[in-house]
C-alpha cells in the first residue's frame, strides 16, 4: 500500500501541544476506560488484567500459559502472579503438561465458566457509556487495533 505524501505544512510548535498528542488521547482514554470498568469488575471480583485473561479463556479454554501471554501481550513475569490469583479464587486450574512439565495448560473451573454469564452485562455498559452506535464502536476498535499493529511492526 502506497501512502500519499502529506501536503500539509508540519508545525513543530503545534505538534508539541498536549491536546495534539495521539499518545495522550490514547493514554487518557485508557485511564477513563479502566475507571469505567473498575466497579463492573469489582462485582465479579476481578481486576482488569484478570478480566482480559478470562475473556481469552472464555473464547478458548485449555490454552497454554505461553499462548495466553502472546494473546494478551504479557510476559510470564506479569502473567504468572495474575494466574496464581485466578487459581486461588477458584476460577482456573493450572495443569502441567505430562510430556513437558515446562508447559502449563490453563483450564477454567466450573466457577470460572459460570462467571461468564455474570460478565455478559459489561459490554452493554461500556456501549452505553461510550454513547456511540455498535458500528461506530466496531470501527473505532478496528482503527485502534490497526494502529497498534502498525506501531508494533
Quick synopsis:
By secondary structure, this protein is mainly alpha-helical. The chain has a domain of 71 residues: Winged helix-like DNA-binding domain superfamily/Winged helix DNA-binding domain (Arc Repressor Mutant, subunit A), CATH 1.10.10. The chain is 64% helix and 7% strand.
Keyword list:
single chain, about 150 residues, mainly alpha, Arc Repressor Mutant, subunit A, about 65% helix, globular, HTH_MarR-typ, transcription regulation, DNA binding, WH_DNA-bd_sf
Can you identify the CATH class of the domain at 45-115?
A: Mainly Alpha
For the record, what is the CATH homologous superfamily label of the domain at 45-115? Winged helix-like DNA-binding domain superfamily/Winged helix DNA-binding domain
User: What class, by secondary structure content?
Assistant: mainly alpha
Q: Order of helices and strands, N to C?
A: HHHHHEEHHH
Distance, first to last CA: 15 Å
Pfam family, one: Staph_reg_Sar_Rot
GO molecular function: DNA binding; DNA-binding transcription factor activity
Protein name: MarR family transcriptional regulator
Domain HTH marR-type: 19-149
Task: Describe this structure as you would to a colleague.
This protein starts with 11 loop residues before the first helix and ends with a helix. The protein has helices at 12-15, 22-44, 48-59, 65-72, 76-88, 110-119, 122-130, 134-152, and strands at residues 92-96, 104-108. The chain has 153 residues and is mainly alpha-helical. It has a domain at 45-115: Winged helix-like DNA-binding domain superfamily/Winged helix DNA-binding domain (Arc Repressor Mutant, subunit A), CATH 1.10.10. Strands 1-2 form a two-stranded antiparallel sheet. It is built from 8 helices and 2 strands. The protein is globular and about 60 Å long. This is MarR family transcriptional regulator.
Amino acid at each position: 500500500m502506497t501512502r500519499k505524501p502529506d501536503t500539509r505544512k508540519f508545525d513543530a510548535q503545534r505538534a508539541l501541544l498536549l491536546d495534539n498528542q495521539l499518545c495522550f488521547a490514547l493514554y487518557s482514554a485508557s485511564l477513563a476506560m479502566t475507571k469505567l470498568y473498575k466497579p463492573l469488575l469489582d462485582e465479579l471480583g476481578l481486576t482488569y488484567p484478570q478480566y482480559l485473561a478470562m475473556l481469552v479463556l472464555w473464547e478458548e479454554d485449555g490454552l497454554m500459559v505461553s499462548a495466553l501471554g502472546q494473546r494478551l501481550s504479557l510476559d510470564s513475569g506479569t502473567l504468572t502472579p495474575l494466574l496464581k490469583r485466578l487459581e486461588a479464587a477458584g476460577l482456573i486450574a493450572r495443569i502441567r503438561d505430562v510430556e513437558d512439565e515446562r508447559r502449563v495448560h490453563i483450564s477454567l473451573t466450573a466457577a470460572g465458566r459460570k462467571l461468564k454469564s455474570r460478565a455478559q452485562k459489561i459490554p452493554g455498559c461500556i456501549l452505553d457509556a461510550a454513547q456511540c452506535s455498535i458500528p461506530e464502536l466496531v470501527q473505532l476498535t478496528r482503527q485502534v487495533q490497526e494502529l497498534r499493529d502498525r506501531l508494533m511492526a
